[in-house]
Design a protein that fits this description.
heterodimer; A: Urease, subunit C, domain 1; TIM Barrel; 2 domains; nine-stranded mixed β-sheet; 18 strands; B: 447 residues; eight-stranded mixed β-sheet; 11 helices; globular
Chain lengths: 428, 447
């Protein structure tokens, strides 16, 4: 028995060290008193915000705190909805260069049935580092191959993937690319064309197969166990979102052409780095876009130096629904700065804020729960001493799905420990 | 004798060409001098490449370009202490010590990254050898004179010599894992330095003995040993790729044993753990604003690194090591205000005077002071605001970036016949964390 207890204690300790979180999150009733509420959907108002049972239950002036409520004075501060990153590998990749900590990339080109949510590590050290920046919700997605798997929207609080799951999953498709993969890609132009055609064939073959499978199995399954096709069935039926990663102008146009023959699909275009070159075509097609990282180099040498910065604003101004993502893992915390650059280079602060809150929530079909500060929505929000896109702004309070989450991460803990190290130079 | 004079004359003429200097008058800006506070509504006059006057109501000859910087912010040209732009080759990954090679032999003035850096206010960078070898090649401090065709004109003339060292995973991976030779551990890495330094000492002694007549036969000339000897003599500054606290302490111990004092750690993600030791040694630390967790040796990192180092008295800078980050180092520096609450001047020092100190060029650049070189960046908002947009970047008094005259295509080597324009995909999430390993990773995989 004692051994058993020791083992349990050892595990608990290991968990604490792994997560490097000393304070616990709190659940209950909280009244945020006296701040400026940036609702995103209903303008900015001076109001109190009441949180209970995980939800925003009331927004108004002079709300009386219910008994047992914890009152947090936020006078002079700002309340924003938690930011949503529309594309990350958070939770499924821990250390990029240590392959056994990378759960994003299954072997093979065709893996529609593998699910990111399965591999989300709720104790990833990266999660607290991310959420203290005000990013409360992220899409985490598999990578690699043509159909790398199914992405999942997660809130950055909870001890199991199910607790974190936030109501959306979409099938990722890396639409064939005609570009080079990097400076180390020395393929000839012919080989690039060959690879493109080969991948295009893969896409078309699997798609035809999936359509046939869906027709055959429309009512009830008549096929043998076929998890790939089972995963694609709702996509070809238009019940699950297809997220198509596509970046260069040529590939965007090819993707739009490919989509023309497909009816009634739920489609989101992701990446779309050269969207600014085909805004008319994108506008006409009408698909929402999740673009980013904004802090990235333009894909070609001759592109304007600021093409990546101006791209989201150019698409948004043309009437395309644009959300912003980082496409990051350990630095998803830079989402507000990506939005800040998009804002400065044409999008404007108001639209850039929407692009990391309500717009991704709408794209993911969870706008009734997330993306703005409204009564009845999930209490995923943060308090700051200023504009959260501004680099010097501090996030002071954080709520995710009603949990008051400590402003604490490996980075803050190391700061606390080492700013004034003890012992210093002396041995004792 | 006449030939000799002619050669000198020729060199002087080339020298003039190579200077590429100009004059410009910046009017009514908010001048962030970095070393002498902020001057409101102030003019800065650059004459023939040098800052000639700072004050109010300055005037210049009618041939001098005037930039109206009203409501704008004028700061020293940003300096990147760690970059690999403008280089054709980065790693000579064939030996644990390649002190004899020099990236200055592989400068590429056509690299569009130079223009992109200019468009982020960066006027100088430290073009470094990669981190494949414990003792890498020598580096080159360049000025971003985008538009010149001659690689020599990128060089910052008379800047101190520097060399790249590397600790930890990269040299262990390339040589130990990849080639089955030392170093495959951090123990082995230490011995590469001790052996090289000791052999260079012996080499110097052998020359001393020959020069003083003690021995009759001269030693065999060895450029690698010559270079390491120059490190021991203090003629070359070591810039060492490093992450973990233990390896940082190790190199400081080796340097102490051999009397080497000029040392700057690069990346140095765990520098915060040994900040008192770094300060005591007098070593510089050039760090990322927030990069971490991309490999195991940076897992125990904190974005508060720069703040902790600075508060402990270390000369710290923020670098890019990336063609992406170099475009917004002002923003990277601003992150120290979120992570550690640095003042504006402290944050700006991380990308101006402090990297200048680490490169040994602080008498020439890194602040707006009379007599310094005319390297200036002008922003429409405070450069530490996320909403700022660089407007002009001036190198040696020549406007090299002007947002109002920014052509859509800034390649120098445009081929008008070219039909195919190459698009490079961003490798999802794998941005150039391994820029330091360029030309080395290909040894392992086609990727």
């Amino acid at each position: 028995m004692r051994l058993y207890i020791n083992v349990v204690i050892a595990f608990l300790c290991a968990n604490v060290i792994w997560a490097q979180q000393i304070q616990k999150s709190e659940y209950g009733t909280f009244l945020l008193s006296g701040g400026t509420v940036h609702t995103v959907t209903n303008g900015n108002i001076e109001a109190d915000v009441l949180i209970s049972d995980g939800k925003i239950t009331s927004i108004g002036t002079n709300i009386t705190a219910p008994s047992g409520a914890k009152v947090i004075d936020v006078a002079g501060k700002h309340i924003y909805p938690g930011m949503i990153d529309g594309g990350t590998r958070l939770g499924i990749v821990e250390i990029g260069a240590v392959s056994l900590t990378n759960d994003d990339n299954e072997v093979g080109d065709i893996n529609p049935h593998v699910e990111a949510l399965t591999a989300v590590n709720p104790s990833s050290v990266l999660i607290p580092v991310t959420r203290v920046s005000g990013v409360t919700t992220v899409l985490t997605k598999p990578t690699g191959g043509v159909l790398p798997g199914t992405s999942s929207l997660i809130s950055l609080v909870g001890y199991t993937p199910e607790q974190m799951y936030s109501g959306f999953d979409g099938l990722i498709m890396n639409f064939p690319s005609s570009g080079r993969r990097g400076w180390w890609d020395r393929r000839s132009d012919e080989d690039i064309k060959k690879d493109f055609d080969k991948r295009m064939k893969t896409v078309n073959d699997i798609w035809k197969k999936a359509e046939a499978y869906a027709r055959m199995n429309a009512e009830q399954s008549v096929a043998d166990y076929n998890p790939e096709m089972e995963a694609m069935k709702p996509v070809v039926e238009g019940k699950r979102t297809l997220m198509m990663e596509v970046n260069s102008k040529k590939d965007i146009l090819a993707a739009l052409e490919w989509l023309k023959e497909k009816k009634d699909l739920k489609v989101v275009l992701t990446g779309v780095a050269e969207g600014y070159r085909v805004v008319d075509e994108l506008k006409e097609a009408g698909y929402p876009v999740i673009t980013g990282p904004i802090l990235s180099v333009p894909g070609r040498a001759e592109a304007a130096y600021d093409a990546s910065y101006t791209n989201p604003g150019m698409m948004q101004k043309a009437g395309i629904k644009v959300a912003i993502r980082t496409n990051e893992t350990e630095n998803v915390r830079n989402l507000p700065f990506n939005a800040g650059f998009a804002a400065a280079y044409g999008m404007g602060i108001e639209e850039a804020l929407k692009a990391v809150t309500i717009v991704p929530a709408e794209i993911f079909g969870v706008a009734d729960q997330y993306g703005s500060i409204e009564e009845g929505k999930m209490a995923s929000l943060f308090v700051s001493d200023g504009d959260p896109f501004e680099t010097k702004t501090q996030i002071t309070d954080l709520f995710i799905n009603g949990w008051k989450v400590p402003i604490e991460s490996r980075h803050t803990l190391l700061y606390d420990e080492f700013l004034d190290r003890s012992p210093g130079l002396e041995k004792e | 004798m006449k030939i000799y004079l002619n050669i000198i004359l020729l060199f002087m003429v080339f020298g003039l060409w190579a200077q590429e200097t100009g004059s410009v008058l910046i009017k009514n800006g908010t001048v962030l001098t970095v070393t002498n506070g902020t001057l409101e509504n102030t003019d800065v006059l650059i004459t023939n490449g040098k800052i000639a006057r700072i004050g109010e109501g300055l005037s210049a000859g009618s041939d001098v370009r005037v930039i109206d910087a009203k409501d704008q912010f004028v700061m020293p040209g940003i300096i990147d202490a760690h970059s690999h732009i403008a280089l054709d080759a980065v790693n000579e990954a064939t030996d644990p010590s390649t002190a004899h090679v020099w990236v200055g032999d592989a400068l590429d003035p056509f690299d569009v990254s130079i223009y992109r850096a200019l468009a982020g206010g960066v006027t100088s960078s430290h073009a470094m050898h990669g981190s494949a070898n414990a003792i890498g090649g020598q580096c080159e401090t360049i000025k971003h004179r985008y538009g010149v065709m001659d690689p020599n004109k990128l060089r910052m003339k008379d800047a101190p010599r520097t060399i790249k060292f590397a600790l930890g995973e990269n040299p262990m991976r390339v040589h130990g894992e990849g080639r089955g030779i030392t170093p495959s551990t951090r123990m082995g890495v230490e011995q590469v330095f001790r052996r090289s330094f000791s052999e260079a000492q012996e080499y110097m002694e052998a020359w001393d003995n020959y020069n003083s007549g003690k021995t009759k036969v001269p030693p065999v000339y060895d450029l690698k040993k010559e270079t390491v000897a120059d490190i021991l003599k203090g003629d070359i500054i070591i810039h060492c790729h490093s992450y973990r606290a233990d390896e940082i302490l190790m190199l400081m111990n080796v340097c102490k044993d051999f009397g080497v004092k000029r040392l700057c750690f690069q990346h140095v993600n765990e520098g915060f753990k040994v900040a008192p030791e770094l300060a005591e040694f007098g070593a510089g630390a050039s760090v990322f604003a927030d990069w971490w967790a991309y490999k195991f040796e940076v897992y125990y990192s904190t974005a508060y690194n720069a703040a902790i180092l600075l508060r402990n008295g270390v000369v710290a800078s923020i670098n890019s090591d990336s063609g992406e980050l170099i475009r917004h180092l002002y923003h990277e520096a601003a992150k120290t205000q979120r992570y550690g609450g640095l003042t504006d001047d402290e944050a700006l020092s991380l990308i101006t005077i402090n990297p200048a100190k680490q490169l040994g060029i602080e008498d020439r650049v890194g602040s707006i002071e009379v007599g310094k070189e005319g390297d200036v960046a002008i922003f429409n908002k405070h450069p530490l605001s996320v909403y700022t947009i660089p407007q002009y970047t001036i190198v040696d008094g020549i406007v090299r970036f002007d947002i109002n005259e920014d052509p859509k295509d800034m390649r120098i080597d445009i081929d008008p016949e070219a039909k195919i324009s190459t698009y490079y995909e961003l490798d999802a999430g794998h941005h150039d964390h391994d820029g330091c390993m360029r030309d080395a990773m290909e040894l392992f995989t086609e990727k």
